[in-house]
Amino acid sequence: MRRILFDSPISRAGYLYATAFGLVWGSVWSTGRVEKRAGLYVFRGMPSFTFGRGGSCVGGCYLTSQNVGANVLEHEAVHKRQWQRYGMIFPLLYALAGRNPLKNRYEIEAGLKKGGYIR
Hints:
This is Fe-S oxidoreductase. Keywords: Membrane, Transmembrane, Transmembrane helix. The chain crosses the membrane at residues 15-34. It comes from Cryobacterium ruanii. The protein has five helices and four strands. The protein is α+β, with helices and mostly antiparallel strands. The protein has one domain (2-110). It has a four-stranded mixed sheet, with helices on both faces. Helix 2 packs across helix 3. The radius of gyration is 14 Å and the shape is globular.
């Protein structure tokens, strides 16, 4: 079952769907510069209600107000890879891992320090 869902054409389709959604969402709400960095479409100037915490990765898009440092983008690039691996199942897996980033395996994998969760 894992071969069918993870790192597969199905997960790739989910990643592309999420990226398309992120591109539309970012295009609608972004009031800042939009650029491609660290393999991500980075949408700045997003209102706080359009993303979680300091920013959110949706497929290959990173949505934020101004949180675009190099370390954060490296952290978000790992989330992009997680989207590619798990596809549309990723939001469910992330939610099941819990809201506490210090215990969430996907945040730990992306790097707590680079994500700004620890000093």
